[in-house]
Amino acid sequence: MIDLHFWPTPNGHKVTMFLEEAGLEYRFKPVNIGKGEQFEPAFLAIAPNNRIPAIVDHAPADGGEAIEVFESGAILRYLADKTGLFLPADARGRALVDAWLFWQMGGLGPMTGQYGHFNVYAPETIPYAVERYTKEVLRLLGVLDRRLEGRAFIAGDDYTIADMASYPWIDPYRKAPIDLAPFANVRRWREAIAARPATQRAYAKGYEVAPPDRTLDDEARRVLFGLPPR
Asked: Is the previous residue joined to 53 through a cis bond, with omega within 30 degrees of 0?
């Protein structure tokens, strides 16, 4: 059994996508980030960076004590190693998947997150920030689009944790949609992943924890962003 400390954000969805694909048994441990539950001592003992997701694997491969893992990319890598799924066995293949996993963790996720912050959540419009992060997200989508040219998935023919990591960060903000028209390969890849039954189950179960159209009140904004109420 795996405890998944979760809230339905792009990083949270990465992990449910893997768990559903692999058929692993897990249970949600909701962490309401709008209410500050990510700062509670019990959660910080597992995830000291006060960010979801985090897991506690009560049945690790070595049969020993439970293993705690935080950071979504590290969780995906841990689960892939545990199961032998969605990660190539050979060194070259693993290096390629790792490179694109780290690309998402260091680029696509943070830059798209800043795009969302300044387009959706910031208390005032800052044109420089909006332009800066919009351009960077479009640049990163271009990188991904070129990578997907002639390939079914990021690493080639096989679906891997690199795809699971990147998929939730493609145009995730309903109030600030990104124009994906120039990125035909990204659109094709995204549609293929969205059609996977495991992806559909992952999102459906995640939204049972909290609906996708939830609105941030002033207190949630203060907790999440350290901002004064509007």
From this structure: yes
